[in-house]
């Protein structure tokens, strides 16, 4: 009996909408994360972006692990929340955290 050669396993890829559902954000946010390098998409020949399941699951595990730690010596945002905050500062405030703080203070007044 001849064995058929095994087909290479294709990686699981998610659409921007699926990734957005995982992180509970708008799909346009996922596209912005791809443009800024926060996520590394695969671009299909059609021009559509897809995201490796392994990368998405790894990011979700980082966020879940941080959410379940109860002996956090220094209170503060989870690594996932910190990554989102960093991307907002980078995208909307040209990487200047003081500009973001000024905007928040201005909104309160």
Could you characterize what this model shows?
- It comes from Actinomadura rubteroloni.
- InterPro entries: DNA-bd_dom_put_sf, HTH_17.
- Pfam families: HTH_17 (PF12728).
- This is Helix-turn-helix domain protein.
- Residues 13-61 form the Helix-turn-helix domain.
- The protein is mainly α and 109 residues long.
- It has one domain (13-64, 78-108): Multidrug-efflux Transporter Regulator, Chain: A, Domain 2 (Orthogonal Bundle).
- It is built from five helices and three strands; from the N terminus they run βααββααα.
- The protein has helices at 16-23, 27-36, 53-67, 79-92, 97-108, and strands at 13-14, 41-43, 49-52.
- Strands 1-3-2 form a three-stranded antiparallel sheet.
- α1 crosses α2 (27-36).
- The protein starts with 12 loop residues before the first strand and ends with a helix.
Task: Present the secondary structure layout.
Layout: E1 13-14, H1 16-23, H2 27-36, E2 41-43, E3 49-52, H3 53-67, H4 79-92, H5 97-108
Antiparallel strand pairs: 1-3, 2-3
Helix pairs in contact: 1-2
Query: Beta fraction of the residues?
Result: 5-15%
CATH fold descriptor: Multidrug-efflux Transporter Regulator, Chain: A, Domain 2
**Domains, number:** 1
Taking the alpha carbons of the first and last residues, their distance comes to 79 Å
Over the alpha carbons, how many angstroms does the gyration radius reach? 19 Å
Q: Can you tell me the overall shape?
A: elongated
**Regarding CATH, which class?**
Mainly Alpha
Domain Helix-turn-helix: 13-61
InterPro entries: DNA-bd_dom_put_sf, HTH_17
Pfam family, one: HTH_17
Protein name: Helix-turn-helix domain protein
């Amino acid at each position: 009996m001849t064995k058929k050669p095994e087909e290479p396993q294709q990686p699981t890829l998610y659409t921007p909408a699926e990734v957005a559902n995982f992180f509970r954000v708008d799909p346009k946010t996922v596209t912005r994360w791809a443009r800024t390098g926060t996520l590394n998409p695969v671009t299909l020949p059609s021009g559509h972006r897809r995201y490796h399941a392994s990368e998405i699951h790894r990011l979700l595990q980082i966020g879940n692990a941080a959410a379940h730690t109860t002996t956090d010596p220094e209170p503060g945002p989870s690594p996932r929340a910190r990554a989102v905050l960093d991307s907002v500062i980078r995208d909307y405030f040209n990487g200047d955290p003081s500009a973001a703080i000024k905007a928040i203070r201005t909104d309160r007044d």
